[in-house]
Each structure stands twice: as structure tokens, then as C-alpha cells.
Amino acid sequence: MTPDDVAILRCPESGRPLTFDGALDRRGHLARGRLRPQGGGEGWAVLAGLPRLYREAWIQGPDRFMRRWFYDAVPRAHDPAVRLLLPLFQGPRETEDHLREQYLTRMALDDLPTDRPVRILEVSVGTGANLPRLRARLPKGVQAQIWGLDLSAGMVGRLQASGRAGDARLLLGDAHRLPFATASFDRVLHVGGINAFADAGRALAEMARVARPGTPIVVCDEQLDPGRPHGLGHRLAFKAVTFYDRNPHSPVDRLPPGAQVLADEQPSRFFYSLTWQMPG
Ligand SMILES: C[S@@+](CC[C@H](N)C(=O)[O-])C[C@H]1O[C@@H](n2cnc3c(N)ncnc32)[C@H](O)[C@@H]1O
Q: How many domains does the structure of the chain reveal?
């Protein structure tokens, strides 16, 4: 992240703009220091090139549990588990690639403008599996800045080590209090975390706030396809991967007031994909 990028950051407590006070690395990126709210305040640490824009006290219940026992504990297991278990549990054609291609199509990247730079945000970017796919889909002429936020230092550490990050702007933060100015992003994506969020409605309202009006927002997570039969094996496997949620389903009922649903669909046996926008 460069000092120029700080312009769209906001203090997740006060909503005030932030200024960086610290050291840059050789590429001119934020290395270490503090992001301080204009007008004063405690501010937010930048450590090893990564801004940390959340307070530990906010992270409770399922968010804390999942981070401690899964995302920070075994980040290395995430990608192989997704790759192997999806076709094993859902059926041989319902692979990770198949699922990711389906929801990425909904981001309507071909409609992005080419006459100005655009910003794309992945909330809960994890180990960054969507990032190379997003870049590969960007049409020629689109100048896109990709941003990724996540709560787990373990997952983001894995992303940084993988080389997938490229020039993506990465930060640690909480999906319930996105540290960005209103209407900062031209596309917003979230995959795989929201079923375990403490308050999915609040996270959706935050995605709506930081997206420009009329921007497609794509959210994907687990839901057992209500439109087809499932054997006992499918049901048990689904229960095992969603043990933390009594009723995993598309959060179409928790969208902010005024949201327009563009598609609420089931790209594979275990996953919904919900595309929506706020009126333009
Ligand atoms: C199953 S992983 C999905 C990662 C990535 N989106 C993908 O498609 O591979 C879910 C991610 O949600 C993140 N997460 C969980 N709670 C969060 C929160 N409150 N705010 C931001 N990210 C969160 C986890 O740290 C984890 O990286």
C-alpha cells in the first residue's frame, strides 16, 4: 500500500480520514508506523507492511472461534482442503474452478469503465485464491487496483508468501466495520466467511456502503441446494463443513433496505451466489 492509497482509508471507529506516520520500504510502500485519524486519536498500527484496522475487543463469538481454530491455526490447509473436498463432497464436476468461475462471471468485469482507474475489493480475501482469477478476467484497457481485507493474519501471511498478492493492497480488518470511505469501490466480492460472521446483516450493509451505487456486489458461501435431492453422504458432508451454522443459507433476507437483487442462485450443490446492488 502506498501513501496515496491511504486517501480512501477511514478510521473504523470515527469514520475520519487517516494520515500515515512512519517508514516506507524501498518500493515506497507503507512498512511500519501508525495510521492516525485526522483530529487525533489512538490510531492503528502498520506492521510488516500490513495496516491493522480493527480492535481485538470487537472480535467475538464465531469470528473469534473460526480465526483461532481454523484460519490462524492452519492457513496452509485451506487451499488444498477447498481443492480436494469440493469435488469429493459435491460431485466430480463441481470443482473449485467451476464454482469460482461461476460467481466471478457475476462481477460483470467486462462492464468496468476504461476511462478512469477502478478499484475492486475482496472482503475476506484469505489466501487470495480469487486474485489471479480476477486479474485474468479483467478486460484489456481496464486499470484496476485490487484491494483485499481479512481478519486473519495467518491467512494473509499465507497470501503474501504465495506470490498471489502482486500489487494488491492488503490490510487486516473486520468485515463488520470496513475501514474505507463511502463509495470507494467499483466491484465488491465476498466468498466463504459470511455464514460464520457474528452479524451478516451488518457486514452486508458495510459492503453496500463502500461500493459505488449501481456496483454489483457478489457474495458466495454455503447453502445446500434446495432445488435437487441429496443423499445421506451429501447431507453429512454439508453438516460437517458448516457445523458452526444451524441454517446456512443465502443472506438475501439480510440485505440492507433498498438493495436490488440481481441474481440469487446455486452454482454448485453446496454453495449459493448472491449478486446485488444498491440503486445507482
Ligand atoms: C473460507 S475463507 C475464504 C477465503 C477466500 N475468500 C477464498 O475464496 O478462498 C474465509 C475467510 O474469511 C475471513 N474472515 C472471517 N471472519 C472475518 C471478519 N469478521 N472480517 C473479515 N474477514 C473475516 C477468514 O479469516 C478467512 O480468510
A: 2
